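Example 3.2
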Amino acid sequence: MPRLRIQVTGGWPRRTLVLTDTPRPNCRECEGDGGFEYDYGDHNGEYAGTEWDPCTCWNETRRWTLLPLPRLPRWLRRRSTGRDPWASDGYSNEPPF
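Structure, written as tokens:
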């Protein structure tokens, strides 16, 4: 029995509402994490990264498209300026600065 979750994907050509599979919460192998994470080293024995092996209780590629989401009109799309819009000069004058 699949354990489903609703997600919004931001892929091409537009955002979509999808159902995705989730790991089995009472899995004895991965304990509900969905896989196994382990560190590995290079030829000198130094840390070189982390690998992820998915558990068999979960298929991370299983998904079903429910609904393509509409695009927002151009005038509703917000562009962030990176400044505080409520500050008098556009920057915050409250501590911490």
